[in-house]
């Protein structure tokens, strides 16, 4: 049966502006609060033990509810879910900026996570169903990938400026104009294809199992950072996550209208994207975290100077995504962009393992940042496009949610894993060099830098593993080339389900 040719929306490029703006807001929020956290902690009297919850409350709600948000977008409509997510995110940000105590701030962060879980997958799936022509799709996802990859570093810059020159509360208030402009533009411009919704009932058992399982997993890594990997609560959370997620897979294989149709993750190209992106984000989050502390504590940079120091990485990501990834996406196979991209990023990290107390920014840190940005931008562009590779429009929301879930879970794992490695290496260095130390303060800083470089070495290996997975699993041809590696799994399910009307796949 020949594929139906989708109608082209004449306002699609205007729609991209508002979709990208919303994505930028979500990505910015993942890092902008990190710079402001010390000021907020001091102002509200948050203890050192509780300060991590400003980050964790958001991560738990966002990571745990992403699959639910993706399916809501498929059922309820992506445009409606997108605007609702923007409105809720703006209200939660206003609440956080006006917080008078710790409880209100943590509640606002959790609410941001809830509405972010509606917003992020609906934004990506709107992009997927709006841009269907191969060359235009490559350009659109190039822009989206640059924002997804570089937005975190921009958040560090913006967070530094707002915190240093205004107030930590503005790191929350700044979301409101982003959300208002994006929601207004979306209402006026975005036109969702009428036949792209999924009319099936919501899978409530799947929602509960997926949410509880992902929350347990993310919280387990958070507890591992503070309590240790072999502590009872940590092991208990990991065990609960394993049981809940296994039960989720079993339920999804049995129910008629699953929250996450297993065909979405069983197709090897999408599986390769989810796995490689999750691993890559582990390395990226570690880099942002350690280099932020290194530049401020060891090098004495101000918050603004720290943010500006990351600017070359942002430029590299934008260049890699829009000038390399987008231009080559329609000419060569995606894995020949993703695997080399991750390898170049790993090379940039390898350069950054050489940081020391007196490291020159132009001579060493700048080249490392540029390589990291170019590599990640080049890899992120085809990865974002392939997140919805071969899916039917009715599954676009949940497929989009999976790529966000892999990044969010990867970020939580990366923060905990690399922090633990850095802390252990720092302690070991301080203990072994204590006898011959001339100064305790100098030893403390030397041990800290040793801990950072040890963790970055691990991040290098993780990025190389991401590249190997991308090269091995992703075997689709270039878009529009008529690759025989189409999504056979999806085609099989579509043929087997007698009550489903065949619809065109989104990309090949």
SSE topology:
Elements: H1 12-44, H2 53-76, H3 78-97, H4 102-130, H5 134-165, H6 170-173, H7 175-189, H8 204-227, H9 232-254, H10 262-266, H11 268-298, H12 303-309, H13 311-328, H14 335-352, H15 361-386, H16 396-432, H17 440-473, H18 488-496
Helix pairs in contact: 1-4, 1-5, 1-7, 2-3, 2-4, 2-8, 2-16, 3-4, 3-7, 4-16, 5-12, 5-13, 5-15, 8-9, 8-16, 11-15, 11-16, 11-17, 13-15, 14-15, 14-17, 16-17
Entry summary:
This protein has 508 residues and is an all-alpha fold. The protein has helices spanning 12-44, 53-76, 78-97, 102-130, 134-165, 170-173, 175-189, 204-227, 232-254, 262-266, 268-298, 303-309, 311-328, 335-352, 361-386, 396-432, 440-473, 488-496.
Structure in words:
The chain is mainly α and 508 residues long. The protein contains 18 helices and no strands. Helix 14 packs antiparallel against helix 17. The protein is globular and about 70 Å long. The N terminus and C terminus are likely disordered.
End-to-end Cα distance, whole Å, is 16 Å
Note the total helix count. 18
Helix/strand class: mainly alpha
Gyration radius over CA: 22 Å
Low-confidence stretches: 1-5, 482-508
The portion of residues forming beta strands comes to under 5%
Helix content: over 70%
Q: Can you give keywords for this protein?
A:
single chain; 508 residues; mainly alpha; 18 helices; 77% helix; Sugar_transporter_CS
